[in-house]
Please model this.
Amino acid sequence: MLRYRESMIDALLRRPAGAGEFFADAVRLLCLFSLAAAFLWYGPVDVALFLLVLMGTLISRSLEISRRFDGIYGLTLLTAAWSSVLDLYARVGWWDLPVHFAATGVIAVMAYLLLARLNAVPSPVSVPGAVQRITVPILVLALGLAVSVLWELGEWWGNAFVDESINVGYQDTMGDLAAGGLGALLAGLGLGLASRAPVRPSQTADRPGMQKGTAGRTASAGGAS
Model:
């Protein structure tokens, strides 16, 4: 565990190299600016929200994953946070569902990759092809449903103790859970497909579940499928 922690800290502190890493770090900078804006012009709840988003993007930087996915993940979290701060969920009735769909999907994949890095779940590139088609999507779906439940609990808490205008009705909750679950399922299927497809060594940095030195194992997994 100590070795993994040290390698994650090294990955967090490394200088960016390549367009993907600069893109992802630019998104992290936007998160930092958003946090500063919340301190200056919004309330403590918004500050806490953007702090969570920034922490999430720092965790993703500590993982050896595709930096393009890292950047998309950060942009999705930032979009969800600003949608809450600017009250877009109330102003645009349908906006809630696509945000739950996209955000739950990327969070579930990132949670899976973090757990795989800690050896709590199988790495996507180490699972045999036939098993991978089932195991990875199911585990990502389970994580996504857990994220959706926590999200809805957060909305309930916000309605009860912060702002009664937050929508927590039965229909809204069920729709959010369904959208989040579907997003997580499709994201899990995408992670499984991306991990199975054989790639050249030069492409390994752009695979969502790829870590350094795993190109050969990925090719083997792709052949097994």
Remarks:
- Residues 199-205, 211-225 have pLDDT under 50 and may be disordered.
- The first helix runs from residue 2 to 13.
- The chain is about 75% helix and 0% strand.
- Residues 92-225 form one domain.
